[in-house]
Write a structure and sequence with these properties.
The complex is a heterodimer of chains A (113) and B (691). By secondary structure, chain A is of the alpha+beta class. Chain A has four helices and six strands. Chain A is globular. The longest helix of chain B has 21 residues. Chain B starts with a strand and ends in a 14-residue tail after the last strand. Classes of the chains: A alpha+beta (113), B alpha+beta (691).
Chain lengths: 113, 691
């Protein structure tokens, strides 16, 4: 079974040419499992388990939900609308990441399998 | 909206009630308080001493505020009522309602006031399609508040009703008061759309009365909005009044999405389309460019942020594609509908490029165009990679979502709009003619941006070459020799869909028509078959599918006509353009100066007045924008470098038109023109009132 920990560890650095104009820190908070941060800078996403600074956008969801989102199985926007994911901070940044996950999410989780 | 209904709106909130201010929703009465596509209140009924007050008059003073003047019935016309009731309502994150009861009698009276409240929390799609809810409703009273709620899994919506003076139970509010002679009593109630799908819980409504006027706060208030718009000076009453009504309605239709709270974009229309539609928002922003260019910037910003990134058949999404419709209700959240967002329009992507170029021409905001360069390049790539599905050089559409996707993905999106001369519906995929015009224009305009702003002359050359090829091939494949007009579309078998329609006017607007054919197209548009006397019909009389009260097959759409008129101006047909502009604006007094989405296509000489289309949205954003673009057409306004060009062609008899303070890259400039053009229009002498 794929764990969210493995997904973030395996994808520590990812090119994200769609996000070249974005500089932001995301936090992924998985209750009872852990917290990870994604630093987006100049078209690269770097994931870390050490807090790099205050997050601009924090997404909170269960491990199952987070995996479904990163695999592309669950649309992030409808997960937000249903209340399955909570967002703190800049919601617009969640949408920017949504576009990236839509294009690449499938590969993020498959890389762990 | 029915004439028996009153609506107030602000941002994503709108309230539709009867003329007494009551809300009593039913399958046939789409009344309620709506926020983000959910009906937050479906019952709000006032009684006094068990009686329903009778309406004297209603005043929707501002778009977000209304007053209802009521009396208690006496049961006979021989005795005047002693009790009057005034309800003042202001919309915004719910609504604030102030109720005042005045005792006009010299003696004391005892009053039992009751408001029954309830909510079905229906998604707009559930209302339209009469579908049942899947979650659970609840009510509770807590700390002087009635909470109406709905929950399905983790999806939750709540309406809070607060009133300090009321006795509250789980079905409404009760008040008891004793009034001495000539005394009055007032209470204020907040109906808060508390948990509505935006990311924050609202704990109060936006506006309170408390002796002061309520104020809107979407970007700027109405007074500031009106004062910043160009000032129109015209002795032609229909134009002056329609202009003011349009500006007010455009202000009312501005709304912000939860994802982009700082960007005020035009929503498509009340009541069904109070949300973002790519096509509608872009057409409206284009129409409004010389008046409120900030709408275009906001629209382009939001659409770029939500540009398609992957192939998703359910949402008809493709990389680079610009979205069609965004919704926030329950059915969308649970993916029972695809609007999260939905990408089923084949014209939004090219319109995005057209608007981007026009915005830069007017404002000179090159920095903005540079920031949107990646989105524009992705949109250009979509045209060839996905728009042209079969590699024949034309954009065609066929939905990927067979259950809930749109069959027709052009602006005429009703089921029978793309029909042959004999009335049969064309098989899919369909390549409608205006899509090719938009693609041509998008490439030509993007070539200018590539050369002048993106510093990519190679791309500019390529786009111009591609546009020329498209123009040549389009003129070969779509022209119908025997009937002398462009086919409405090529169908799935590449047959010409041979109905004469208003779409050919959009071809003029796009520039894809060679000069030698423009006169023929103009004559077709002004023929009795297409021109009703008020405007160009969506489909010509005599076509198999023609129906003067058919949504896209015979009605007259003000928005459609505004682009047709602008297209005629592009090719120098100023009389024809003015005739259309005059016809549409002359229709406006019959709609209280608020142009509807569409009206019937009956000939003007038969009916003498424009006949209403039964389910027309009003206000509708691009109808609101139509008079604005028509003003541009009449005055012949264009941006040329850092100057505002004027080339007026104003029909004789309507006097001088002055448009003062047109914003643009020149700062502010005045435009004016005198009526010297002889146009054959059946004038209504009553309409020439000096104001």
């Amino acid at each position: 079974m794929v764990r969210i920990h493995d997904v973030f560890e395996t994808n520590a650095d990812m090119p994200a040419p769609e996000l070249t104009q974005l500089v932001a820190i995301y936090e992924f908070r998985v209750p009872d499992v852990g917290r990870w941060w994604a630093v987006v800078d100049k078209g690269v996403i770097s994931i870390t388990g050490v807090e790099p600074g205050p997050a601009d956008c924090t997404m909170i969801a269960s491990e199952e939900e987070m995996l479904r989102i990163f695999s592309g199985e669950q649309n992030l926007i409808t997960a937000l609308m249903q209340g399955r994911v909570e967002v703190e901070g800049n919601v617009f940044l969640a949408q920017r990441l949504h576009g990236y996950i839509r294009a690449h999410g499938k590969f993020i989780v498959e890389s762990v399998r | 909206m029915s004439g028996n209904e009153v609506s107030v709106l602000e941002g994503s909130t709108f309230v539709v009630s009867d003329r007494a201010g009551d809300i009593d929703a039913s399958p046939t009465a789409t009344q309620g308080l709506f926020q983000f596509d959910t009906r937050m209140l479906s019952r709000w009924v006032l009684t006094v001493n068990g009686q329903h007050p009778v309406t004297l008059s209603t005043d929707d003073m501002e778009y977000f505020e209304a007053q209802f003047f009521l009396v208690l019935p006496t049961g006979t016309i021989y005795r005047d009522s002693d009790v009057s009731i005034i309800r003042k309502r202001a919309a915004g994150d719910g609504f604030n309602e102030e109720i005042t009861i005045e005792n006009h009698a010299p003696h004391d009276i005892s009053l039992d006031v009751r408001i029954d409240a309830g909510s079905d929390f229906a998604d707009l799609f559930e209302i339209k399609d009469a579908l049942a809810k899947k979650g659970d409703h609840y009510q509770r009273v807590e700390q002087g508040r009635l909470v109406l709620g709905y929950q399905r899994e983790k999806f939750r919506r709540e309406t809070w009703i607060d009133c300090a003076d009321a006795e509250i139970d789980d079905r409404g509010l009760s008040f008891h008061t004793e009034l001495h002679g000539h005394q009055s009593w007032t209470t204020t109630i907040q109906v808060i759309g508390a948990i509505d799908g935006s990311w924050e819980t609202h704990s109060t409504t936006k506006y309170h009365h408390s002796g002061e006027s309520a104020r809107p706060n979407v970007g700027m208030d109405l007074e500031a909005w009106l004062s910043q718009a160009p000032k129109l000076v015209s002795s032609w009453a229909p134009l002056a009044r329609t202009y003011k009504r349009s500006l007010i309605d455009l202000a009312a239709l501005r709304f912000s999405t939860p994802m982009h709270p700082d960007e005020a974009i035009p929503a498509a229309g009340l009541p069904w389309f109070m949300t973002m539609f790519g096509r509608d928002s872009m057409f409206t922003s284009y129409q409004a460019l010389p008046f409120a260019p900030e709408l275009a910037a906001a629209t382009l910003t939001v659409l770029a942020a939500r540009q398609g990134s992957t192939v998703d058949l359910f949402r008809d999404e493709e990389p680079g594609k610009i979205m069609h419709e965004s919704r926030a209700g329950e059915m969308t959240a649970f993916e029972e509908r695809p609007q999260s967002p939905y990408f089923g329009s084949a014209d939004s992507t090219t319109l995005f490029l057209i608007l981007l170029d026009e915005y830069e021409r007017w404002t000179g905001n090159a920095e903005f165009v540079r920031a949107l360069e990646p989105a524009a390049r992705a949109a250009l790539a979509w045209i060839d990679a996905y728009g042209d599905r079969d590699g024949d050089g034309f954009i065609e559409y066929q939905r990927g979502n067979d259950e809930t996707g749109l069959d027709n993905q052009c602006w005429k999106d009703s089921w029978n709009s793309i029909s042959f001369h004999d009335g049969t519906v064309a098989p899919l995929p369909r390549a409608t003619c205006e899509l090719q015009g938009y693609a041509y224009d998008a490439k030509m305009r993007s070539a200018r941006l590539a050369r002048d702003i993106w510093n990519d002359p190679g791309l500019a050359d390529r786009l111009e070459r591609e546009a020329e090829v498209l123009k040549r091939r389009f003129n070969q494949e779509f022209w119908i020799d025997g009937r002398d007009f462009y086919a409405l579309a090529l169908d799935g078998n590449k047959r010409k869909v041979d109905s004469l329609t208003s779409n050919i006017g959009h071809l003029l607007w796009s520039g894809i028509v060679p000069q030698e054919r423009a006169r023929i197209v103009a004559d077709q548009l002004m023929s009795d078959a297409l021109f009703s006397g008020w405007g160009v019909r969506t489909m010509a009389e005599g076509e198999g599918a023609y129906n003067p009260i058919g949504y896209h097959v015979g009605t007259v759409w003000p928005f459609d006509n505004s682009f047709i008129a602008e297209g005629l101006r592009r090719y120098g047909f100023r009389k024809e353009a003015s005739r259309i502009a005059m016809g549409i604006i002359e229709s406006s007094p019959y709609f209280n100066y608020r142009l509807p989405e569409a009206f019937a296509g009956y000939p003007r000489q038969e009916t003498g007045f424009p006949v209403e289309y039964p389910t027309s949205c009003s206000p509708q954003a691009w109808s609101t924008g139509a008079p604005l673009l028509m003003l541009r057409t009449l005055l012949g306004l264009d941006a040329a470098g850092d100057r505002l060009l004027m080339d007026p062609a104003i029909p004789a008899g309507i006097g001088r038109i002055e448009l003062l303070g047109v914003p643009g890259r020149w700062g502010h400039a005045d435009a004016f023109g005198r009526d010297v053009l002889e146009v054959d229009v059946a004038h209504d002498p009553e309409s020439y009132v000096h104001v």
